[in-house]
Amino acid sequence: MLLGSQLRRLREARGITREAAGYAIRASESKISRMELGRVSFKTRDVEDLLTLYGITDGAERESLLSLAREANVAGWWHSYNDVLPSWFPTYVGLEGAASLIRVYEVQFVHGLLQTEQYARAVVRRGMKGASAADVERRVALRLERQKHLLGDGAPEFHIVLDEAALRRPYGDREVMRGQLQHLIDISERPNVRLQIMPFGFGGHSGESGAFTILSFPESDLSDVVYLEQLTSALYLDKREDVTQYEQALKELQQDSPGPDESRDLLRGLLQLS
Fold first, then answer.
1. Residue 158 region by backbone torsions, left for phi larger than 0, else alpha for psi between -120 and 50, else beta
2. Using one digit for the tens of pLDDT, what is the confidence trace for 50-109?
């Protein structure tokens, strides 16, 4: 997806149609469309020819994009879980693993990167009604594997605004919820995690459209991606005007929510009440 969006911007900057780009690599206009949407694998020769067509002659820039093409064709560790994942989600896991900054607003439940194993199991069971115990455990294992990226070397910055509703809505029994609240208190102390709670008392706010995630990447020429999950699919938005609106919404959520220290106090209060 990241490489495809880069190729699309380069093509549009040159005023070249998809039809002309397809002709240059002996392919159809629809294949160029699928490449730019990240829905097909990339042949190095095709990417080289497109970069030449788009006037990219700088060696370092070409190699950066060709390296991205090679990486795009390598199956990630998460592909072994494809049998228990919805078709749109492996793409997100790959983007999440590549991100240097992850910004989130969540309202339904605690974000997957911050869930305890017991809480995650309760969430997965609720979302996978009728699934076998083995499939539930595989989905939980994937979630725990994703969390290693947040806690390991080179971990991304993780900024999240959690709606109080996510903390009040029980998944699992009382002990599961107590463990989850304590985990949030503990993990919010990590230097790469900024956790804020949007309290009920604030009223209406800029997150009225629902949960969303903004992924940013270490390569300065790669666009941010907004991830929106739906019941039967997901949207990946990378147009600047779309990303800007979600960035503004998150900025307002951060400004309107108590800061990290006050949010930890709110979590402690909920823990005492639970």
1. beta
2. 999 999 999 888 998 888 888 777 767 777 888 888 888 888 998 898 899 999 999 999
Helix (H) or strand (E) holding 195: strand 193-198
pTM of the complete model beyond 0.85: no
Contacts 24+ apart (CB under 8 A), 119-128: 119/171, 119/172, 119/176, 119/177, 119/179, 119/180, 119/183, 120/144, 121/172, 122/171, 122/172, 122/176, 123/171, 126/171, 128/84
Q: Which residues contact 261 (CB under 8 A, 6 or more apart)?
A: none
Q: To 10 degrees, what angle do helices 44-53 and 59-72 make?
A: 150
CA gap 142, 128 in Å, rounded: 14
Whether residue 94 contacts residue 63, with contact meaning beta carbons closer than 8 Å, is answered with no
Asked if 57 and 18 touch (Cβ cutoff 8 Å), the reply is no
Collapsed DSSP state (helix, strand, coil) of residue 162: strand
Where is 157: in which H helix or E strand? strand 157-163
Question: In Å, what is the CA distance from 246 to each residue of 146, 213, 215, 250?
Answer: 24, 9, 11, 6
How many CB atoms lie under 10 A from the CB of residue 103? Answer: 24
Task: Read off the pLDDT of residues 122-137 as tens digits, 9 standing for 90 and up.
Answer: 999 999 998 999 999 9
Q: Is the pLDDT of residue 153 over 80?
A: yes
Distance CA 51, CA 46 (A): 9
**What is the C-alpha to C-alpha distance for residues 226 and 214, in angstroms, rounded to an integer?**
4
Q: Which residues pair with 163 in a beta bridge?
A: 198
